[in-house]
């Protein structure tokens, strides 16, 4: 089942999620480095990464929501997609709260509270990522209707065997 939000034959949402995912997880790594080294640059970098990750997550979420709207109602995929979306909103809220705690300080130091919010955000992100994998790998959401190991490139605009002409 293909979604409508595509570019060059591929769904936009999964392309965009790698940026916020990487930024938010790396922010937590920089927090750990800050706690280990006490170097303010790590805390500052984590703050910038969280800001960029939240903005990127909002953009990815728009395309994910558009795709979700096209999943047939009353299906397991629709329910899993809703849980996936809600979990991602929770991730963004937790990281935004972590960013606000950091921003409220003059030094941008990572406090224990900001760190815990980010850690819980990563945990919710893991759950949400698993749900997203369930949507694609198990339920076929976002997968070309004619997908197979010998399907033609999406750039050729040729229809894969058993597929449709949707772009």
Characterization of this structure:
This protein has one domain (6-138). The protein is elongated. It is mostly helical and 167 residues long. The protein has helices spanning 12-16, 18-37, 40-69, 76-103, 112-138; strands at 6-7, 10-11. 66% of the residues lie in helices and 2% in strands. A hairpin with a 2-residue loop joins strand 1 (6-7) and strand 2 (10-11). Helix 3 packs antiparallel against helix 4 (76-103) and helix 4 runs antiparallel to helix 5 (112-138). The chain contains 5 helices and 2 strands, in the order ββααααα. It has a two-stranded antiparallel ribbon.
Helix run count: 5
Apparent shape: elongated
Sheet with the most strands, sense and barrel status: 2 strands, antiparallel
Q: Could you tell me the number of beta strands?
A: 2
User: Class by helix and strand content?
Assistant: mainly alpha
Indicate the mean pLDDT: 89
Name the beta content range: under 5%
The figure for the number of domains is 1
**Which consecutive residue ranges, at least 5 long each, have pLDDT under 50?**
none
Calculate the terminal CA-CA distance, rounded to whole Å.
12 Å
Rg computed from alpha carbons, rounded to a whole number of angstroms: 19 Å
* Helix fraction by DSSP (H/I, runs of at least 4): 55-70%
Q: Topology as H/E string?
A: EEHHHHH
Strand order of the largest sheet: 1-2
Labels describing this entry:
single chain, 167 residues, mainly alpha
């Amino acid at each position: 089942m293909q979604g409508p939000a595509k570019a060059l034959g591929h769904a936009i949402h999964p392309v965009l999620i790698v940026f916020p995912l990487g930024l938010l997880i790396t922010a937590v790594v920089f927090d750990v480095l800050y706690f280990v080294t006490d170097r303010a640059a790590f805390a500052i970098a984590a703050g910038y990464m969280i800001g960029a990750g939240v903005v990127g997550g909002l953009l990815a979420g728009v395309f994910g929501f558009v795709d979700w709207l096209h999943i047939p109602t009353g299906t397991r995929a629709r329910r899993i997609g809703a849980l996936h979306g809600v979990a991602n909103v929770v991730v963004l809220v937790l990281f935004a709260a972590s960013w606000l705690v950091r921003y409220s300080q003059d030094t941008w130091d990572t406090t224990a509270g900001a760190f815990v919010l980010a850690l819980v955000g990563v945990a919710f992100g893991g759950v949400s990522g698993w749900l997203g994998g369930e949507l694609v790998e198990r339920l076929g959401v976002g997968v070309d209707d004619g997908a197979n190991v010998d399907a033609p490139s999406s750039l050729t605009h040729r229809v894969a065997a058993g597929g449709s002409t949707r772009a």
